[in-house]
Amino acid sequence: MPAFNPDDAGPGYLYVRVADHITARIDVGELRPGARIPGERDLAAEYGVSLGTIRKTARVLRARGLVITLRHKGTYIRHPDARNATTHDSGTGGRGHFEPFPS
């Protein structure tokens, strides 16, 4: 997987480009189902972007059904079988139910 370069200007928003890069990392198995992804500060440093950009990136990844965020716990890669499942609020602040592995 090629490294992300925030200076590679292209059309579109930076947070979407970061989300696309993380999506590609998930697709190739670099980030595996059930794994916790680095925290916001660590991701911001890794990608060379602001915390606000990473927060928007996380929203995109949640909307794509690729990750689930548990308040005070972190953000986790969802299992492919759980990505199409309907999410519901179970104390996750409206971010969905954590099911990284199929039951």
TrEMBL record:
User: Which branch of life, at top level?
Assistant: Bacteria
One Pfam short name: GntR
Residue ranges annotated as transmembrane are none
Q: Which PROSITE patterns match?
A: HTH_GNTR
Q: What is this protein called?
A: Winged helix-turn-helix transcriptional regulator
**Keyword tags:** DNA-binding, Transcription, Transcription regulation
| SMART domains with a match to the protein in the record | HTH_GNTR
Q: Name one GO molecular function term.
A: DNA-binding transcription factor activity
One biological process term from GO is:
negative regulation of DNA-templated transcription
Domain HTH gntR-type positions: 12-80
Q: List the InterPro entries hit by this protein, alphabetically.
A: Bact_HTH_transcr_reg (IPR050679), Tscrpt_reg_HTH_GntR (IPR000524), WH-like_DNA-bd_sf (IPR036388), WH_DNA-bd_sf (IPR036390)
What residue spans carry the region label Disordered?
79-103
Keyword set includes Endoplasmic reticulum: no
